[in-house]
Every structure is written in structure tokens, then in C-alpha cells.
Design a protein that fits this description.
Rossmann fold, 4 helices, two-stranded antiparallel sheet, globular
């Protein structure tokens, strides 16, 4: 068999490194038990919180990863309304829907499972969970 693609979504405010790492180890173990040769981790590549912790865990453990950063400053999509871009401190603007497009990209790669490290009601994490469920991808929300 091949590697099991595992999605990771989570809040930038996620701080529980041991809980996230234990969850990823358990998912890896389950994939091995199901006959996969290992896992590959796909995440949104945020520079803090769950994505950063998951990426560091993958690097330390030799787990391949796919990083899918949101293109905040890039062009808008066809779903965007004129004038919706928001200003940044550096004088540039960003598209507030870029995170949703990134979440859809992760969903389109159809991971076997989506692990969610949600803090409070993090809207980006909730959006990714909703998209995964709509695509028939099981979601495991880490209990806190």
C-alpha cells in the first residue's frame, strides 16, 4: 500500500504541542495498522499554531508533508466581490477569502482524514472542517 494522506487544520492560537503530537502519532499508528506504509501530512502552512507545530513534528519524524499556504496578497477568485479586499499595515491589501480557497485546495486533495485543532470557534478551522465533511472526508476534532 502507499502513504495515507492526512490533513491538518487548526487555529493559529493552538498551544498544546503534546496533545497535537500525540494525536498525529496515533493517526500514524492507525494508518500503519490499516496497511499503509506511513502518512503524509497536508496543512495550510501558517507560521504559528497547529500548522507550524504539525510541520515541525513531521520534519522531526521524517513524515513527508505538503504545505498549502493561502495566497493572501495574490489575485482574488471569481467568488470575490469588487472592493472586498482589506488593507494591511504595509499599505498593501489582502483577500479575506484566500484562506477559504486554501481550505478547498486541501479538501480537493482528498486526505483520508482531517485532524482539526480548533481553539474556541476558529472560523478558518471551522471552514476547513465543513468543507472536508461536505466532501465525505472524516474529521477528527481534537478534544480540548
Amino acid at each position: 500500500m502507499s502513504l495515507a494522506l492526512i490533513g491538518l487544520t487548526g487555529s493559529r492560537k493552538w498551544h498544546d504541542v503534546p496533545l497535537l503530537e500525540t494525536t498525529l502519532f496515533l493517526v500514524w499508528h492507525d494508518a500503519l495498522e490499516d496497511g499503509y506504509t506511513g502518512i503524509e501530512l497536508i496543512h495550510g502552512d501558517a507560521h504559528e499554531g497547529a500548522d507550524a507545530m504539525g510541520d515541525a513534528w513531521a520534519v522531526r519524524n521524517g513524515v513527508p508533508r505538503r504545505r498549502r499556504p493561502a495566497d493572501w496578497e495574490g489575485p482574488c477568485g471569481p467568488e470575490c466581490q469588487p472592493g472586498h479586499r482589506k488593507p494591511k499595515r504595509n499599505g498593501r491589501t489582502y483577500c479575506p477569502l484566500a484562506g477559504h480557497r486554501r481550505n478547498q485546495q486541501i479538501t480537493n486533495e482528498h486526505p483520508l482524514l482531517l485532524v482539526a485543532a480548533q481553539v474556541n470557534k476558529s472560523t478558518g478551522t471551522a471552514d476547513c472542517m465543513r468543507r472536508a465533511r461536505a466532501a465525505g472526508i472524516p474529521v477528527y476534532r481534537i478534544p480540548v
